[in-house]
From TrEMBL, chain A:
It comes from Paractinoplanes tereljensis. Residues 5-70 form the Carrier domain. Gene3D superfamilies: ACP-like (1.10.1200.10). InterPro entries: ACP-like_sf, PP-bd_ACP. Pfam families: PP-binding (PF00550). It comes from the Bacteria. This is Acyl carrier protein.
From TrEMBL, chain B:
One of its GO terms (molecular function) is long-chain fatty acid--protein ligase activity. InterPro entries: ANL_N_sf, LuxE. Residues 15-342 form the Acyl-protein synthetase LuxE domain. It comes from the Bacteria. This is Acyl-protein synthetase. GO terms for biological process: bioluminescence.
Length: 81, 344
């Protein structure tokens, strides 16, 4: 599975979305399944999936799929490879 | 990185400007607030203590917001002792900003890394994810700062000693975060640690929730701290905050005994008879100020709590340091909010 697919899967799992749900445009404040509980589960899923430890500021800033791509880049995970 | 950096004079210079601007911002956008200011004769402030305060209870009686209905993103509620409910309206900007500032405040003592986190509470509290209690919301907000969360209480609210032991075996050798409400920490962590010889010496405890139940058991804040030190827990930070100023927390400094104001917030203690500001050492009614409330006029609030300023620029961190002494007896607090209700 590509890194991009892994990240999409992480979002679908954590936010309890259907397997084919489009996630690339997801925003924290616009999706009702993405509440604060789901956010913690999303962070945990991403950390497990990519073996990274995300700092507090990045947990707070990770407010969209594209932010997740950018933040993972800081931790050396290139999603768009 | 810390948000506890400004000496009092520098802070007041910034705050009087920013909070005066916020007062005008809310006056222009909230009809009831404008009426209150007019009834009050407010015509500008030259000091922080001059700024016009609202009794916190007003948020239970009036719909106070400075944003149009279609920009309301979240409505926070808190039930008081009387069963009346405060309603706090946030737009997206205010919601994001409060999370960010709370994050910056807590990172002042925890640092940028998320630590393994022991929650002195029960997961059952979050069962209905559409409507958490204030306690649930507090736990959830704080859990952002942790990782590998373990709940110290089971679904029935009983101590889960195996879970606590498991957590300490895995994470007890390096710094870890403990969060819980003061009374639960006393009852379900301190006593359990003492009776079972648990080593909490790498823990950093953040706790809140009022001292009333502990005072009923004759446990003072000082004794709380001393007894926790007895089980190795010396890194302890109490905090004070309320839903009406969500995102702003006043945090206890490392040496204990005093709460400190982040750079974007302050406190004023007032005489409950004359409303005049009281000097350090004299207890009175606590007023809290913060630049965070931009979507509702909650930037200067008179609480129903008694407090005392212990000193200014003479503690662990710059600015005022203070304690919360408990609730004002209900009858005494009534006058001012009745006046406001008539004006509004």
């Amino acid at each position: 599975m590509s890194e991009l697919q892994k990240l999409r899967e992480a979002f679908r799992t954590a936010l309890d979305l259907p397997a084919d749900a489009p996630v690339d445009d997801l925003q924290y404040q616009d999706n009702e399944k993405w509440d604060s509980l789901a956010h913690m589960s999303l962070i945990a899923t991403i950390e497990d999936e990519f073996s990274v430890m995300i700092d507090t500021d990045d947990v707070i800033n990770l407010s969209s799929f594209s932010e997740a791509v950018r933040i993972l880049g800081k931790y050396g995970v290139d999603i768009n490879e | 990185m810390s948000v506890f950096t400004l000496p009092q004079a520098a802070k007041e210079a910034v705050l009087v400007k920013e909070l005066s601007a916020l007062t005008e911002h809310h006056r222009a956008r909230s009809e009831p607030y404008a009426r209150i200011l007019a009834a009050n004769g407010y015509s500008g402030a030259s000091t922080v203590a001059d700024l016009p305060w609202l009794p916190v209870r007003l948020f239970k009686n009036l719909e106070l917001k400075s944003i149009p209905d279609d920009e309301v993103f979240k409505v926070l509620t808190s039930s008081g002792t009387t069963g009346e409910v405060s309603k706090i309206y946030l737009d997206k900007h205010a919601a994001a900003e409060q999370t960010r500032r709370l994050g910056a405040t807590v990172q002042s003592v925890l640092g940028p890394k998320r630590l393994p986190m022991l929650l002195v509470d029960t997961k059952a509290m979050l069962k209905d994810r559409k409507s958490f209690s204030a306690r649930g919301a507090g736990v959830l907000g704080m859990s952002t700062f942790g990782r590998d969360h373990v709940w110290a209480l089971d679904n029935e609210g009983q101590v889960d000693l195996a879970a606590i032991r498991g957590f300490l075996e895995k994470h007890g050798d390096a710094p870890f975060l403990i969060f819980g409400f003061t009374f639960l920490v006393w009852l379900h962590l301190y006593e359990v640690a003492r009776d079972n010889g648990l080593d909490l010496s790498n823990g950093i405890l953040i706790h809140s929730g009022g001292w009333k139940k502990l005072i009923d058991q004759a446990v003072s804040p000082d004794e709380f701290r001393a007894r926790l030190a007895g089980v190795g827990l010396t890194n302890v930070h109490n905090y004070y905050g309320m839903v009406e100023q969500i995102g702003t927390v006043f945090l206890e400094g490392p040496s204990g005994g005093s709460l400190y104001c982040p750079d974007f917030a302050d406190v004023v203690v007032r005489d409950p008879q004359t409303w005049r500001e009281l000097p350090p050492g004299e207890p009175g009614l606590l007023e809290v100020l913060s630049t965070l409330p931009t979507s509702y006029p909650g930037h200067v609030l008179l609480t129903e709590d008694l407090g005392v300023v212990h000193g200014i620029d003479d503690g662990d961190w710059p600015g005022k340091r203070f304690s919360v002494l408990g609730r004002l007896p209900r009858a005494e607090a009534r006058g001012c909010s009745d006046t406001y209700r008539e004006a509004a």
